[in-house]
Amino acid sequence: MSMFDLTGRVALVTGAGQNAGAGIARALAAQGAAVAVNDLRPERAEATCAEIVKEGGSAVATPFDVTDLEAVRTGVARAGEMLGGAVGILVNNAGIPADMSYGPFRDLAPERWRGPVEINLFGAMNCVHSVLPGMREAGWGRIVQISSGAGRTGLSIGVSLYGSGKSGVEGFIRHVSQEEAPAGITANTLALGLMESAGGPGVKGMADGIPVGRRGRPEDVGAMVAFLVSPEAEWLTGQTIDLNGGSVTR
Ligand SMILES: NC(=O)c1ccc[n+]([C@@H]2O[C@H](COP(=O)([O-])OP(=O)(O)OC[C@H]3O[C@@H](n4cnc5c(N)ncnc54)[C@H](O)[C@@H]3O)[C@@H](O)[C@H]2O)c1
């Protein structure tokens, strides 16, 4: 049997309708997982599913808003029913609100503070809380949180709110990893550097400084996540790992 085989596993990837999330969903499907492709926008989730199925993989679209706990609970249950088993692999990738606010904190009105924290921190909590019972019952689970360098390094590109949500969820995942390790569940965070798809101010200057000489691609993220959720990664938990072309080393 080849390494990193996910045959028989059921995975849920949030925000997987495009870019990094779509790359993750495709990679997990290529390793044999049956994938529930989530996105806020149903047509994006359907598009990723169609690509996976075209490549011979197994996927269903499960659109919902990760910030809505009831919708998450229902979506997780439906994913399990449609794919024939409880979700054993959760990848919290949704993390950029549709109306993402950029700017120095001093200029951001209080009404804009919650959005980036809501999706990154409470969105992750909603999903983790919904999948843990099934993982614990199975005695096996894999949780991967997608974060950003902005959660680990102070930057002056107007992302303090987003960085707060990312730092918060990194802390949350560390605690979950300790609580759930005895149950066979690992939880790790992958902090991405600048992706090809990135928007917002300050992108050009940052891109020039990446030692590997290019920005990140969906398949870079997919390959790393495929390893993190594999049976072989059983001893890797509680960590935040930078995937960034060498832009920051720790
Ligand atoms: N793009 C970058 O350079 C970069 C850098 C570091 C980290 N990240 C992180 O990587 C992840 C993916 O980033 P991306 O650039 O591929 O994102 P993206 O915005 O291109 O795609 C994310 C998808 O999430 C969906 N989404 C938004 N809100 C949602 C919600 N409430 N519930 C469900 N789905 C929702 C969107 O519809 C979209 O299709 C995010 O967590 C982001 O913070 C991205």
Main features:
250 residues, alpha/beta, Rossmann fold, 7 helices, 7 strands, 14% strand, binds nicotinamide-adenine-dinucleotide
Structure, explained:
With 250 residues, this protein is an alpha/beta fold. The chain has one domain: Rossmann fold. Helix content is 41%, strand content 14%. The protein is built from seven helices and seven strands; from the N terminus they run E-H-E-H-E-H-E-H-E-H-E-H-H-E. The chain has helices at residues 19-30, 42-54, 69-83, 114-138, 160-180, 203-208, 218-228, and strands spanning 10-13, 34-37, 58-61, 89-92, 141-148, 185-192, 240-243. Helix 4 (114-138) links the parallel strand 4 and strand 5. Helix 1 (19-30) packs across helix 7, helix 3 packs parallel to helix 4 (114-138) and helix 4 (114-138) runs parallel beside helix 5. Nicotinamide-adenine-dinucleotide binds next to helix 1, helix 4 and strand 5.
